[in-house]
């Protein structure tokens, strides 16, 4: 995960990192944050949150989008973590 992030920082703009790495969704509407909540544990969630704080701007995209976005079934990250 760290290698992918380092590569992305070298090759992608901040907007591309937002759209491609942090905010894009899979075919079930899940973001990387949903997947980390379901499968990765607290340490991975904390790292993604840290990266999001570095890259998400308050002008356009608010950090709440990571926490409040829903998948195709209407589940937020909190739902995923609680399952």
**Could you name the CATH homologous superfamily?**
Ankyrin repeat-containing domain
Determine the fraction of residues in helical runs and give it as a percent range.
55-70%
CATH topology: Serine Threonine Protein Phosphatase 5, Tetratricopeptide repeat
Number of domains: 1
CATH-scheme architecture: Alpha Horseshoe
Unreliable segments (pLDDT under 50, ≥5 consecutive)?
none
Shape: globular
β-strand number: 0
β-strand percent reads: under 5%
Total helices: the number is 6
At the first level of CATH, what is the class? Mainly Alpha
Structure at a glance:
This protein is mainly alpha-helical and 83 residues long. The chain has helices at 2-11, 14-22, 32-40, 42-55, 64-68, 77-82.
Description of the molecule:
The protein is an all-alpha fold. It has one domain (13-82): Serine Threonine Protein Phosphatase 5, Tetratricopeptide repeat, CATH 1.25.40. The protein is 64% helix and 0% strand. Helix 3 runs antiparallel to helix 4. The mean pLDDT is 77.
